[in-house]
Amino acid sequence: MTQFNLSRALPGDLSHIKTEQREGVLTITLNRPEKRNAMSVELTFEMVRLLEAVAVDESVRVVVLRGEGPGFCAGMDIKDFFDSSERDEATLRAAKEAANHWRVRLLRNLPQPTIAMVHGFCFGGAFGIVEACDIALAADDTKFTLSEINFGHFPAGPVAKAISRTMSVRAASYYSLSGRTFDGPEAERNSFISRSYPAAELEAETYKLAAELATKDPVALQFTKESLQYVETMSWDAALNYNAAKFAELKVRQQGATSRAASVASFLEGKSRPGLGS
Ligand code: COA
Prior knowledge:
Layout: E1 17-22, E2 25-30, H1 41-55, E3 62-67, H2 78-81, H3 89-107, E4 114-118, E5 121-123, H4 126-132, E6 135-139, E7 143-145, H5 159-166, H6 169-178, E8 181-182, H7 184-189, E9 195-197, H8 199-214, H9 218-231, H10 236-253, H11 259-268
Parallel strand pairs: 2-3, 3-4, 4-6, 5-7, 6-9
Antiparallel strand pairs: 1-2, 7-8
Helix pairs in contact: 1-3, 4-5, 9-10
This protein binds coenzyme A.
């Protein structure tokens, strides 16, 4: 496995995140297993630097985001970000902004497709990571908890919007008011995640999907993400206009790349069946 070379793009090392790249698939691993990958101030600033570099790295075709150790992520670092924080006020203010920025804008707006691979547990602020990824796969035995209410808090930062955007109002209210835990199949049923798999299959299924996405046209992937994201709040007419403009841009961006012309020609010659996945 080759190491993702961030040395030119990143001032300083990453110590709370690991990266590995293989055949266009970049894995970003939250790497604080001793603190259950809770998002500390340092991890937050590192994610900003990392994602800014990934966004302009054309060798990255797909991003997988996962957690080291027993679970995906235990949410915000309660010691760093809540009442007991010993951080100075300016650092804390910058970190709070950065914590929103990397999940809500940088991760969501990466040009590459992103897959959250969720195992073990996913609590509180981690919902904001999972929702910002395009696709979320989880192990059946994952414990999902909107735990804020269990310590006298509420789903702050991006979390309330993240659950409102993915789950029904009934499900979002039920889980965030009760603080009850649900598992992978239940997360799939309430559409917080895309698919749930037996724990032993999760990793293989994740990388199988990532490899599949890495074979697809990168500009078409980016425009698929963008179209889904932006048309959501547009009128029908605005959406059709937006997509017509993006279609024209697609042709310009794909100039020199043969993939779309070649695959359309292949279909017209009866050699492929895109409707069946090829
Ligand atoms: N913030 C800060 N530290 C955290 C953390 C969090 N969100 N979650 C876990 N940790 C730390 C613990 O304080 C402990 O640190 P220590 O070893 O220095 O005492 C370490 O991680 C291990 O946690 P521990 O509770 O001993 O492990 P566990 O395996 O028994 O339980 C959890 C793990 C994640 C279930 C439990 O720690 C927990 O409920 N954490 C809070 C999760 C939460 O509600 N997050 C939402 C925040 S928005």
